[in-house]
Write a structure and sequence with these properties.
Structural class: alpha+beta
Strand content: 25-35%
Largest sheet: 3 strands, antiparallel
Number of strands: 3
Strand order of the largest sheet: 2-1-3
Order of helices and strands: EEHEHH
Length: 78
């Protein structure tokens, strides 16, 4: 299984969207400062995730969340 996820800092100032195969492990990597894009802001919490059978579907959904329409969807639904 593959996941598309949205994480946010505890203060709510920063968000990050990504995809992975192991959701808990990936969150631990973000909080351990092992991901360059998120190392300066932590701790992180998962605010939304979706499960997919195919990696390509997870990547497609990640790209959607990074679009203007996807950002609007997240504001309305998360």
């Amino acid at each position: 299984m593959y996941y598309t996820y949205v994480i946010e800092t505890l203060d709510g100032k920063h968000r990050y969207v990504g995809h992975c195969k192991n959701l808990n492990s990936q969150l631990n990597q973000h909080n351990a400062r092992n991901v360059k894009a998120t190392r300066d802001n932590r701790p992180w919490k998962i605010i939304h995730s979706e499960k997919f059978k195919a990696k390509s579907d997870a990547i497609y959904r990640e790209k959607f969340f990074k679009s203007i329409n996807g950002e609007s969807w997240l504001k309305e639904n998360v």
